[in-house]
Amino acid sequence: xxxxxxxxxxxxxxxxxxxxxxxxxxxxxxxxxxxxxxxxxxxxxxxxxxxxxxxxxxxxxxxxxxxxxxxxxxxxxxxxxxxxxxxxxxxxxxxxxxxxxxxxxxxxxxxxxxxxxxxxxxxxxxxxxxxxxxxxxxxxxxxxxxxxxxxxxxxxxxxxxxxxxxxxxxxxxxxx
Length: 176
Prior knowledge:
Blueprint: H1 2-23, E1 30-38, E2 41-49, E3 76-80, E4 84-86, E5 89-91, E6 94-101, E7 107-112, E8 127-133, E9 136-151, E10 155-173
Antiparallel strand pairs: 1-2, 2-3, 3-6, 4-5, 4-10, 6-7, 7-8, 9-10
């Protein structure tokens, strides 16, 4: 009987050890997604969610003036079922990778026609749209997120949030 208990204990320890080893292969930046209707359009954003871990983010970890995707491992991807206007400019239905050029006073948000790409390989010359936005400060968000804090019948506010930085985008249905 003691041998049977000992065998079970060794087997359990081995299984827990395997589970721990498998845990090491789980991505540190977890997959996230958000889906929202804006008028009759469906907007879906898929991205990996890096964690701040007390680091200085914009202007440090993410340098000002350089192209960066708000995601880890793979570029953030947005899919629109219908055309929308984003900050007043039309973006056709389709899937795009999302990139930004951060700065202290103004950010450029880029929608690129290559939807699936490694997060460090910006596909130059393939942009569908670039829009400007003014960053704001908000409550600290530890893990990067895309959110729709305001949605109306045919419009929405999309925010990219990380640390205390908020990057707002206005979306309107109909591509008008």
